[in-house]
Automatic annotation (TrEMBL):
Pfam families: TPP_enzyme_C, TPP_enzyme_M, TPP_enzyme_N. PROSITE patterns: TPP_ENZYMES (PS00187). Residues 439-574 form the Thiamine pyrophosphate enzyme TPP-binding domain. This is 3D-(3,5/4)-trihydroxycyclohexane-1,2-dione acylhydrolase (Decyclizing). Its EC number is 3.7.1.22. It comes from Limimaricola litoreus. It is an enzyme of class 3 (hydrolase). GO terms for cellular component: acetolactate synthase complex. CDD domains: TPP_PYR_POX_like (cd07035). Belongs to the TPP enzyme family. Residues 40-129 form the Thiamine pyrophosphate enzyme N-terminal TPP-binding domain. Residues 595-622 are annotated as: Disordered. Residues 225-356 form the Thiamine pyrophosphate enzyme central domain.
Amino acid sequence: MTSIQGTIRLTTAQAIIRWLASQYIEIDGEELRVCGGGFGIFGHGNVTCLGEALHGMQDELPLYRGQNEQGMGFAAAGYAKQWLRQRFMFCTASAGPGTMNLLTAAGLAHANRLPMLMLCGDGFLTRLPDPVLQQMENYGDPTFGVNDAFKPVVRYWDRITHPAQVIQSLPAALATLLDPADCGPAFIGLPQDVQGWAWDFPEELFAKKVHRIRRIAPDEAEVVDAREALRAAKRPMIIAGGGVQYSRAAQDLAAFAEAHRIPVVETIAGRANLLADHPLNIGPIGVTGSDSANAIAAEADLILAVGTRLQDFTTGSWTAFDERAQIVAINAARHDAGKHRALPIVGDAKRSLQALGQGLDYAAPAEWVEKAQAERRGWDEYVAQNVKPGNRPNSYAQAIGVVNDLCHKRDRIVAAAGGLPAEVTANWRTLGIGTVDVEFGFSCMGYEISGAWGARIAQEQREPERDTIVFIGDGSYMMMNSDLYSSVLSRKKLIVLVLDNGGFAVINKLQNNTGNESFNNLLADCPTIPEPFAVDFEAHARSQGAEAVTVETPAELGEAFRRAQESDRSQVIVMKVDPYEGWTTEGHAWWEVGTPEVTTSDRVREGHENQERGRARQRRGV
């Protein structure tokens, strides 16, 4: 490594890693590296050059060895959520299928507005050895390859074609990762030859730089319009989304709601914005919501949507609200603030709530608040019975209730696709602000264990004494479980509850609820499986180095969970649950799914007619 005055000669890969290590962020007065390290699987497309650069910086940027590139991306997403998007991890994968495996994770990060940096191998810029191993040739455009597939699912995309390009590309990528409005994954393609090319970089490029996440101040005119709309409201409600947490505005939300006596409902992403016993917390809203939240949503004349993109599970496919209700949307992203004829406040949630409350001499009518609170008391009574052991065959809700009673208020709860997001959202009683991660922005099976591994890495940096608890079904476990092994290898303890209902039971439920016969979801209903048999999840988990036990009842689950809390190793607790009788049956809003308009089945025809009747309240957006 040589240098001339004011410069330092580095390879492209070395410059990227050295630059990343010099970037810091200020969090609560403390300066931390904004990049917490990375997840990596090496191959010929990244091991010789990027691997060499990472080896020399492993103390500054620790590299966690993944088992599957998709899982690495999920882990990076879980890490970013735990750090409230203030810090991120990079993922590095080899050219070809290794990089392609990150596509799903990039989609998850994009849908959830999460920062994740991908440093991925690419072909040779010179093309002298073409075609190379794992290259996907495009006959009419040799510049077009598999890495271009990331363009629709990232917020920033670039391919480094010369070492000097690092000076522009990396700051642009980081600016995207830290921007409240445009936050999402960034992809940087690294041709194998360019990774090793050297250049004389300016030394000041690698000087320590401290970043701060921008807080966008709301426009005064937009605040005035929203304030006037709120003053006229007789039945207002607040929808609190995940953006409340990302702007660190949970206390401001509670203060605003208390000052103006406005009932609050939560989205799935905003599930832990308020504690369960807060008097204005009326429950989760939408398709996987609560009777209490959906009841007041149907009558509200003003909806203050804070930090939510109002996806269909929140809005009941836009049937949850009165057609005449006025939406006021606070969001850092203009795209989300203007949905469905909303009065927008484009700005940071914390600043916007503070601005909206200034001079707002308003409180919601007492009878409206009392009605909302009465609805919540009714929902609490239902949940108490729903999670009660022995009230029916083993269920998701019972397992959730057991853990809820025994866990610490600062333990982190992770769930994702399948039936558990609905069950956790409906039945979990929030003990600590920001402690619930239900990945339902992309509803991605396989996120659970990988995302929890990433969350645990972050959690140990903030609250090492607390546990990361995973709720996962047998279908998601079979789809991706190898990061249980990662958690064992890296000594990042997880408590994983595998709730086995014999297949993809929630989709079987949807199939049946629309009049269709059970087919290809539960193992017992797959005609191509002559003799179904049960996976020994306990033995499988033990084979990956975790401690594991199978329990028969919720009471045994509680005993096993207490033992898991005392251990310092990853734990797996397996319990069978009923695929038919165990579901939460209350609290659901209408959800639009496609059903056959023409069929020979009377049950399917009835299902289609029922589905269409639910459309009567659907709000017509613009």
